[in-house]
Amino acid sequence: MKKIHLICNAHLDPVWLWRWEEGCTEALSTFRTAERFTDEFPGFTFNHNEAILYQWVKENEPDLYERIKEKVKEGSWKIMGGWYLQPDCNMPSGESIIRNIAEGRRFFMEEFGKRPTTAINFDSFGHSRGLVQILNQAGFDSYVVCRPAKDNFDFTSQNYRWKGFNGSEVIVHRSDENYNSVHGHAAEELEKFLNETREEEVSLFLWGVGDHGGGASAQDLKDLEKMLQERKEEYCIIHSDAESFFQELRESGEELPLVERGLNPVAEGCYTSQIRVKQKHRLLENEIYSGEKMFSAASLLYGKEYPAQAVHEAVKDLLFAEFHDALPGSGTQLVEEDTLRLLDHGLEIMSREKMKAGIALTAGEKAIEDGTSCVFIYNPHPYEITGQFAFEAGLPKQNWEDVFYYPECSCNGEPVKTQGEMESSHFCIDWRKKVVIEATLKPACMNRIDIRFRAIPKRPVFQPISGKKEYVFDNGAMRAVINTATGLMDSYQVDGTEYIKPGSFRLTAYDDTYNSWGLRTPESCGERNLTLLTPHEGSAFSGLADKVVPSVKVIEDGPVRTVVEALFGWHESKAYQRYIFPKEGTAFEIETGVYWNEKDTFLKLNIQAAYESGEYLGQVMFGRETLRQENREVVAQKWNAFVNEDKALTVINCGTHGSSINAGKIGLTLLRSAGYSAADGNFERTLREERHTVRMEQGERIFRFRIEAGKPGELMDGLDRKAQIFNEAPYAFAFNPSGKGEKRGELITIDNPAVILSAFKKAASKDGYIIRVYESAGKKAKADLKLSAWKTVYTLEFNPFEIKTLFLDGKTGVVSEADLLD
Predict the structure, then answer these.
(1) pLDDT higher than threshold 80 for residue 21
(2) How far is 563 from 204, CA to CA, in rounded Å?
(3) Which whole number is the average pLDDT over 378-401?
């Protein structure tokens, strides 16, 4: 007899159409109703997940909370999933997902003594393949999703095995009936479901009024109870929970299809919508995970108290912002503002704590000499970093003379190439300095930059390049050509090999849908290029009231780097693009500042590779995946790469996720000006009101990318490390140390460039520290982890993409294997 497990839930979205306060009140009313129905309808079981909702009930209706705890003991209320909340499952890093699970697990274990083994994420717009290993190591053996839908698979079964990068597996149930039912129609929807799943021996049916509250209703419960009795000769229909369903599914012996890819794409517009949220989310991730490494060093080496409570508060801000309708940008403008405010709160916490740790980490440094300035740079990574580092510092005294003071620096006592550039302040006194150096920073410790100043007649100016057909930058290893008539890059060569076609790094606008979730494909809509502004237009855009200058020009140059700026425009929008070329190395950076004032349009930065066939790869949680091509929108994390047997062209970002590629033309999706929470449906109403309707992304948006090309082998093996450096940038601050204390060495080093330090933080459950590392290149690997303060060397062996979590006893220096969750 066919058996159907009815799982009643109330899919509550704390944010989307409303602010989080309304989510809180909706949770209270839904939980109150569900608690009452467990008494009124014997046998009825209510299921719910998301620790944050239970926390709201505990804080606001403690009596109800205590009754729910009793219901959990009795078994009529099931703790489902057990995460902090249902996050987006593509854009957060794997480390963030671990924190989400750990936060929920601690709460439900401490409050209810429950540890679910089935993970729940109904509403995420796709799921990264890297989740499988995380779920597996976190103790989950099964997963319930609603997306992607059945038309994304080549089989009809709702159940399948999902295989991760490292070979681990979980069983997934794809709930084709979706996560909610219409009020008063649950029995009707169940009848339809029974007809569509006749071949299944055991089935799971989700119901409950959603997706913003309600859950069980008296009418639906009565109708379902009647149906259970009427159909009991044909079906065994029971009120149940996810774990019971998966247990029966495994016992049935059903052979399940195998899926070995990410569960994507879904709602591709969500990979780009509300880009400020996405960029600020990435920034908070970077600040937390680099900050924890600083705090651990300050605590373990210098005795500074680890700011555990402050970090925990910032982590909760991050996790809330990763909610599956906040980070994807499908919420209203109110939700966008709330999410940005939340992220800013976390960023402010981290800013204050990083400064405290930074000061502690200068112990043992001598006081600065008269007539000099000093900046300290903390490298949070367990390896040396060589590159260009920019920071600001003040002159020892204001310059009231008719000269300009130019910086000269040493790093850790050794002279380094130094360049002065335009500082952020436009104050009339020569006082504040922006300094750029080419240097090597020691690993996992503080690096000292001493600055002296020499007087030159005036601030440097640079010769115009607009009179030439092209501007050529050549540092011996890298050659780049900027077309002065278009402002675009016509050539990028590394070691004599060409990697792009002319006209690359072009900004192109495409017709888009108003749908917050959707995205039109480039081939289905018109495209318009932003073109180089005339000198008059460019000068007006730049705010030059009394002069006219070319729209392509060198704005910075010196021993460290050259910066070329080009100004573009189309319709109501304008942009500046800066090409930042280092005097050493093969990588360069792009900074694009867009002043956007378009509607229902999306913007891409297009790079035409010199070759048209190859693999398009993207970083995902604790792994990398081959992404689809043919101009189909895809999602990735910190990098994308177009690779063939001989060449690799890589792009590292700091907060963009959507892109596409077709015949070697990479389109990095920068922004889209869709409507807020504008869904397809009633076309007479959706954004057709006779009034001004607000669109996303109106105003200034800034994007940064790091471009590097070369041979695939070494470049691809170290790409995750370079992406981490670009995102978790070294922390620089100007400071005059006290000269007291004892200077210590580095905290940690790792000798394999493909092994990434994901986390170094204070353990939550016991006295000690958590170190988490993973193999990023997809190869078997070996690495030595060294902790110099204890003279500890711990050798690690990895399978491809394997995550390892270690526990460090801070007193003895003993390192041991640990569970993923602490």
Answers:
(1) no
(2) 59
(3) 96
